[in-house]
Amino acid sequence: MTTERNNFLERLMVIFKREAEEHLKTMTELLQLLESGGNGQVDMDIVDHLFREAHSLKGAARSVDIALIESVCQSMEYALVKLKQKEIDLSSGFFTAFYQVIAHLTYEVSHLAGERKALNLVQLQLMLQAL
Amino acid sequence: MNLKMKNDEIDILIVEDSPTQAEKLRYLIEGKGYGVRVAIDGAMALAAIKERKPNLVLSDIVMPGMDGYTLCRTIKEDENWRDVPIILVTSLNDPKDIIHGLECGADNFIRKPYADAYLLARIEYVLMNQELRSGKNMDVGIVLYLGNQKHFINSQRQQILDLLISTYEQAVFVNDELHERERQVIELNMRLAQYTTELEATNRIVADKNIELEHASRAKSEFLANMSHELRTPLNAILGFSEALKDGLVGPMEEQQREYITDIYESGGHLLSLINDILDLAKIEAGKMELELVPTNLKMLLENSASLLRERAHAHSVRLTLSVEPIESALVDQRKFKQIVFNLVSNAIKFTPAGGDVMIALSKKERALDPVGSLGDFESELPAASGQYIELCVTDNGIGIEPEALNKLFQPFVQLDSGLTRKYEGSGLGLAIVKQLVELHNGTMEVKSIVGSGSYFAVSLPYIKASSHSPVQVLKAGQ
């Protein structure tokens, strides 16, 4: 691999970290909005927005070859589609899964520097798939 | 398209809201020598086109504000911009993606995720064939129904063909992925089968070990039973001859001689009772103990047993009182019933200081549900047929038992406080035997105790009414 390409990948990783943090922060805020909405009605605009954030993060993770974050985001998308199609409710299980996933992703993203360690997110993914 | 154009003269507009993906695309496309501009949403893209008409637009679909389809339609609806080729990057997951793509007039499609080389080849292909799609496309329209919705498509053949190829490529790719997943599932199933086999083997080993353990336990009990029997034979000689000497049957003895021989006789008696206890426990554990049920007057049986115990109570200066309800004749194993009474009462006497009281009460009761304070550990099921049971209660106002010690109470060879062992003689088997005998009867036991105030032991045995012609019934343990 050329130095030039290495430099590019390093720069790309810095951009990814910043972008991922932004998405995760926005997603947390959206979840809180969704949670405070109450009265059983699901605000579909918020769900759409959440979906877009997960979708963008997925694409960004793919750009830097982090397959696990990518597939966790894919699972989040699936869960959100189920929510949109009213196959699932905004249960406490939903929020637990999403908050935990976001907390773990945030942790992993903040530790991305240098060597890329295997992300232990498989269990969290299963949690999302079980929704 | 002007084929003489150099790559660096070609301006490609990337529309992508994710900075990471935009940067990756820019790096990739700039690597081919093209000029690149990046817009992060539809509105910015339109502003960029207004500023300078690009040679190609490469747009994401899911974006905040204006999405890729709307952007594409807006560009295609503008006379001046219509000839700018647009490639949409879509995941093509939904048939509607294809329709939306056609409806908005996109020129080509790149399926996500894409390989770098594929993306570049697509861009090159679209730039090369730009002439084909210039001008006269929006003329022929097709009406299409999908998912109960009417769609109007006015794409030209080239567009439709491109989309068709993209879709087919997608299908092939997904099919490959599916094969890969299938292979993984087969592999996982094989591994699962292997684990299952290993687990079964382990279970078999555990089962074998359990059988071995049971055999060993039985062998131990049989050995104990036989040994105890062998020990009793010489002991009977010791007891018999020392008693004869003590009673002067062999001739007069001096005071000291009599004292010594009395010691020998009494120690022998104690040893015999220990051996009897061990023998009983071993017999029960070996499954050799049988119940011999005979019609019995319980009141008489209890008074009979009490007369032996009164002597012992008197020796300890403990008052023994008896309260017996009249009970019709019942089927009882007399020897074992007596042993239960004897063990419980002699224990009570032993652990009650001089001047104390021990009370025995016997009554017949209706089956109560879940007696309060019973120890679940050794509660066995009473036969459901009869709702009646015989209750034997032994109450004392002796030293009592610590709550933590209650669980250990019925384990063989345990006298609760090792300090007590010196003060109160005994094998530590008495209560273990009572427990086993009660279980043999399918009965239950209950204990309550307050340290310093005394203890309460209650034994409940199923009441089996003796009919006038009841024969002796023999039940083997565990039946």
Descriptive overview:
The complex is a heterodimer of chains A (131) and B (479). Chain A is an all-alpha fold. Chain A has one domain (3-129): HPT domain (Four Helix Bundle (Hemerythrin (Met), subunit A)). Helix content of chain A is 76%, strand content 0%. Chain A is built from five helices and no strands. The radius of gyration of chain A is 16 Å and the shape is elongated. Mean pLDDT of chain A is 83; it is low at 114-120. Chain B has 479 residues and is an alpha/beta fold. Chain B folds into two domains: 7-155, 3-Layer(aba) Sandwich (Rossmann fold); 289-476, Heat Shock Protein 90, CATH 3.30.565. In chain B, strands 2-1-3-4-5 form a five-stranded parallel β-sheet, with helices on both faces. In chain B, strands 9-11-12-14-13 form a five-stranded mixed β-sheet, covered by helices on one side. A three-stranded antiparallel β-sheet of chain B has the order 10-8-15. In chain B, α4 links the parallel β4 and β5 (108-111). The longest helix of chain B has 90 residues, at 157-246.
Features:
heterodimer, A: 131 residues, mainly alpha, Four Helix Bundle (Hemerythrin (Met), subunit A), 76% helix, 0% strand, elongated, B: 479 residues, Rossmann fold, Heat Shock Protein 90, 5-stranded parallel beta sheet, 5-stranded mixed beta sheet
Summed up, the helix count of chain B is 11
The CATH class designation of chain A is: Mainly Alpha
Provide the succession of SSEs of chain A.
HHHHH
Tally the helices of chain A: what do you get?
5
CATH topology of the largest domain in chain B: Heat Shock Protein 90
Distance between the termini of chain A: 42 Å
CATH fold assignment of chain A: Four Helix Bundle (Hemerythrin (Met), subunit A)
CATH superfamily of chain A: HPT domain
Most extensive chain contact? Answer: A-B, 18 and 14 residues
Please, what is the oligomeric state?
heterodimer
Shape of chain B: rod-shaped
